[in-house]
Design goal:
The protein has 524 residues and is an alpha/beta fold. It has two domains: 312 residues, Metal-dependent hydrolases (TIM Barrel, Alpha-Beta Barrel); 89 residues, no CATH class. The strands form four sheets. Strands 1, 2, 3, 4, 5, 6, 19, 20, 21 and 22 form a ten-stranded mixed beta sheet that branches. β11, α7 and β12 form a beta-alpha-beta unit.
């Protein structure tokens, strides 16, 4: 890639290895690569002939680091519909891993009327046409597109399950494993399991082992959304994932590790201990919030979820009480459930309000309100659910085998729906908490650069050195802070000065440039 040569001058380089403190150096970028890291020992140096015609970006008082890598996102479709990727570049993110939680837009069958509902968590823009079926065809769509940041695709096990179910294939474990294997051969970097989402959550040990085995054979990543995160089930769910890794040797990533509604911190400590004792191929990611975002459908009992949304929509008129009782038995408190998306026009006013407030206004029990919201929106209802402790999340993030994953979307600041503040704030918030908690900048930055790059297998990324890809972020350490809140989630962070992708500035002096040098990275 021929790009304008850039000199990132006057800053302190943090190289992403976590091995040394920031050092005074200038970084020369040319043709999409880091050409040289020019160490400055006396505070100044004389330009040489190779720097003639090079544009200078001021990095005085700032840290110059590899571009941040978000190892857990759901930008599978929004990367196509929102190529400016404001929520990514304003955090310093230059590469994001998509296809998580068992959900990817492919493989699917074009005649399956329920597929988009299966991936409703990531299907934030229903107007995007699905002019692809196989994972290979989906990759063709991605590679033809350009956006502000890079994406690294995983194949969703749940999507493969739905495709096998729709086709009525007799040997489902073999059929699902074959679809996953085809995706890995086409260029996917790994596989994701969504063991809390239908239809993946109904998968038996034989199928999960088959999927993990083909992923291990490809030496690819297996990212696992656990079967449960509540205080009573988290340790057992982590154990299930670690046992799968022990049996297959797969490269395991446990997704957004957190304890929900736990009586004490013992459960999260036990889970962390399992991960740390499981060996060098087991890691986790986390985000620094007390709430997560999911679909309202997830509040139903597992036996109702596993039947799928089509079954719910068909049965609901005659079984309204059953579904209300199912949600009531979830144990969640309605004041801790915030509605952030619904596609039913008459329900748009409830967005941004808790189910407790909506139920009080309507004078009805909150489970009935929830069931009606699902019914009117054909189950396209997203909620933010509170239930974790911030102090626990800080401890999780600080552990050596835990990386930062936003679990967010690549969207713009004009996104027409409420979202979780992690979309715009996860990385600045995480770095701020880690450093303020006593971690060095070099170790904190390694958690969002070198460590995730090594975990996924991204050669030439995550470390700032000669010949690495010119994905770079320049941050102001004293000013770095997230500003997105649950009430105002689309507010960009402060303290990110410059962001460069493939040698092209996508954020300059804190403002997006509109450039789109990012691309889909395929594993070959």
């Amino acid at each position: 890639m021929n790009t304008e040569p850039l000199l990132l001058a006057g800053g302190l380089v943090v190289d992403g290895t976590g091995l040394g403190p920031p050092r005074r150096a200038d970084v020369l970028l040319r043709d999409g690569r880091v050409e040289e890291v020019l160490t400055v020992t006396d505070g100044s140096w004389e330009p040489t002939s190779r720097l003639e015609g090079t544009r200078r970006l001021d990095c005085t008082g700032a840290l110059v680091a590899p571009g941040f890598i978000d190892i857990h996102t759901h930008s599978d479709l929004t990367w196509l519909s929102t190529p400016e990727c404001s929520s990514r570049v304003t955090q310093g993110i230059t590469t994001e891993v998509i296809g998580n939680c068992g959900m990817s837009p492919a493989p699917h069958h074009h005649r399956d009327p329920n597929f988009r509902q299966v991936i409703s968590v990531i299907d934030q823009d229903p107007d995007i046409p699905f002019n692809f079926e196989s994972f290979s065809e989906y990759l063709e769509v991605l590679t033809a597109h350009r956006a502000a940041v890079n994406v690294v695709p995983l194949v969703g096990h749940g999507s493969a399950c739905q495709t096998a179910l729709f086709q009525g294939l007799a040997d489902r474990p073999a059929a699902v494993a074959k679809l996953v294997d085809e995706a890995l051969n086409a260029g996917a970097w790994g596989t994701s399991l969504g063991l809390m989402y239908p239809p993946g959550e109904a998968s038996g040990p034989e199928e999960l082992a088959a999927v993990a085995a083909v992923t291990a054979e490809a030496d690819a990543l297996l990212a696992v959304h656990l079967r449960a995160y509540d205080g009573k089930s988290l340790s057992r769910s982590v154990g299930e994932a670690c046992l799968l890794q022990a049996r297959t040797g797969v490269n395991l990533e446990i997704s957004h590790l957190r304890a929900v509604r736990a009586e004490s911190s013992a459960v999260i400590e036990d889970s962390l201990e399992q991960i740390e004792l499981a060996g060098p191929r087991v890691h986790a990611d986390a985000y620094p919030y007390t709430a997560g975002q999911t679909t309202l459908f997830q509040l139903l009992a597992p036996e109702d979820r596993q039947k799928g949304t089509a079954s719910f929509l068909e049965a609901m008129p005659g079984h309204r009480k059953h579904y209300s009782d199912s949600i009531a038995a979830s144990g969640f408190e309605p004041e801790k459930i915030l509605v952030v998306r619904t596609i039913a026009p008459q329900d748009r006013p409830v967005v941004g309000r808790s189910l407790a407030v909506v139920a009080q206004d309507e004078g009805r029990p909150w489970p009935e309100v929830a069931v009606d919201l699902l019914w009117r929106s054909a189950c396209y209802v997203d909620v933010v659910v509170f239930g974790s402790r911030l102090a626990e999340q800080e401890r999780v993030l600080a552990r050596p085998k835990v990386m930062v994953g936003s679990d967010g979307f690549s969207i713009s600041s004009s996104y027409p729906a409420a979202v979780h503040p992690r979309a715009f704030g996860a990385f600045p918030k995480s770095l701020r908490l880690l450093v303020d908690g006593g971690m060095s900048w070099e170790h904190a930055i390694a958690k969002v650069t070198g460590l995730p790059a090594a975990k996924v297998g991204l050669e030439g990324r995550g470390k700032l050195k000669a010949r690495s890809h010119a994905d770079v972020v320049v941050i102001e350490p004293d000013n770095l802070v997230d500003r997105a809140t649950y009430e105002s989630p689309l507010v960009p962070a402060a303290g990110v000065r410059h962001v460069i992708v493939s040698g092209v500035p996508v954020l300059e002096a804190g403002s997006p440039t509109g450039a789109r040098p990012g691309r889909a990275l395929l594993r070959r």
